[in-house]
Amino acid sequence: MATTTIKAAVARNTDAPLTVETLELDELKVNEVRVEMVSTGICHTDAIVRDGIYPTPLPAVLGHEGAGVVTSVGKTVKHVSVGDHVVLSAAYCGACKQCRAGRMAYCENLFAEDFGGRRRDGSTSLSCCGEPISSHFFGQSSFSTYANVVEESVVVIDKDVPLELMGPLGCGLQTGAGAVLNEIKPEAGSSLVVFGVGAVGSAAIMAAKVAGCTTVIAVDIHDSRLELALDIGATHVINSSSRDVAEEIKMMTDGEGVQYAIDTTAIPAVTKKAAETLGIRGVLVLVGAAAPGTEVPFEVGASLVKGWTFKTVVQGSSIPQEFIPRLVKLWKQGRFPFDKLIKFYSLDDINQGFEDSKKGVVIKPVVKLRYPFLIAKLTPPPDD
Length: 384
What we know:
25% of the residues lie in helices and 24% in strands. By secondary structure, the chain is of the alpha/beta class. It folds into 2 domains: 4-170 and 337-377, Quinone Oxidoreductase, Chain A, domain 1 (Alpha-Beta Complex), CATH 3.90.180; 176-314, Rossmann fold (3-Layer(aba) Sandwich). α5 packs parallel to α6 (199-211). The chain is globular and about 65 Å long.
């Protein structure tokens, strides 16, 4: 079998830094697209898989917010062509009841498709000197210079936008914006609070402004993030390390509480606090990823009469092939300025990107794999 030599960041051991290595990429399958990566976002989900909280078998190439250019396509691929500019999103089976109903984010085979580390036939596209390396993380494994990507993960976008910026739309930004625009669908003039204004929370704030919310509250422990939140659409900010969030929100809403709350942290104490900020018939949405088995002790006695709702939301309840182009259009209109969140890193500095994100130094780290990106310089990968 012919293989192609690539560079990739490999997660070999739990709780350990990634190592940049030379790997072999196998031949393209009939349902796959080969993508030359221009950039890829670093997401919290990458970190929790690296740390063993979610079950992808190591060693593995992670990365699930890729953006790049298609260099070849498999025989059965229908909707993607060589030369297309693409953003890569989550994989889904396309055959289960949820997928057939257009609810791909809730695919019944989500863990196998996105976290299994293998194709459906049990093979992996990556190896190192004969050692199998888990691939197809979210259908893509984009911490690499090239990847064989399942067609379901591929979203074709306009060629007139800077491709190196677009990768984070594939997961984090789609998750936050979709929670607002696809799931909550707030009425114009409504109130919304976001707990945790990293990339997901910042996307929710921008989307709330797009939706016409007139009270948009950002809650975080980093003043720098709160300052940026004001710049991208928040009307109020609260540093929860020094202020009583529930009391502050009561004052901001004339004692009524908010109509909508989004928790991006998945920290039980924060989720519980978010519920306490809701007004009558309020809705609390959890979009953060917690370890399996995590529980939240909600008060359900006095709060019964509020008639409030709690729900979990995955991938912004999006159909990526429809929603991501919508977000690109909003960015072009200046209404979804997510570029303000991004800081670029080289592949060799990928671990610094993880560390800076953890410390709150940067909101959305993005690894640039071609720098600078020039479409004229894109060439097929060399074959061994």
